[in-house]
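PROTEIN DESIGN WORKSHEET
SECTION A - STRUCTURE
LENGTH: 87
C-ALPHA CELLS:
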C-alpha cells in the first residue's frame, strides 16, 4: 500500500455561535482541550505544517475522497494502522 493508514487525535478550532460584538473580558473557550477529534484514514499529503487525511482512496485511478487538512500543531496523538487483514 502506497498511502499510510493512520489514526489521529487532534484539537479542533471553534468559533462563537453569537453574531456581533462580544465583551473581551467575558470570553472563555468552550471546548474541553481533552475532547479531541478522532480521524482515521489515508495520508495523501504531508509537509512540516499539515497532514492531509482522506477517508477513501482509489490507488488504481489515483483518486481520493473525503479529505481533511489537519494542522500538525493541533495533533495530540498519531499512530499507524496496520493494513493487514485476516481471512
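SECTION B - SEQUENCE
RESIDUE ASSIGNMENT:
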Amino acid at each position: 500500500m502506497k498511502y499510510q493508514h493512520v489514526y489521529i487525535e487532534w484539537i479542533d478550532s471553534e468559533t462563537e455561535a453569537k453574531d456581533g460584538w462580544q465583551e473581551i473580558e467575558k470570553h472563555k473557550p468552550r471546548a474541553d482541550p481533552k475532547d479531541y477529534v478522532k480521524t482515521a484514514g489515508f495520508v495523501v499529503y504531508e509537509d512540516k505544517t499539515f497532514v492531509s487525511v482522506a477517508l477513501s482512496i482509489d490507488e488504481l485511478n489515483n483518486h481520493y475522497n473525503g479529505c481533511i487538512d489537519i494542522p500538525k500543531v493541533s495533533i495530540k496523538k498519531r499512530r499507524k494502522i496496520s493494513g493487514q487483514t485476516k481471512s
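SECTION C - NOTES
The chain has a mean pLDDT of 87.
Strands lie at 5-10, 37-46, 50-58, 63-71, 75-80.
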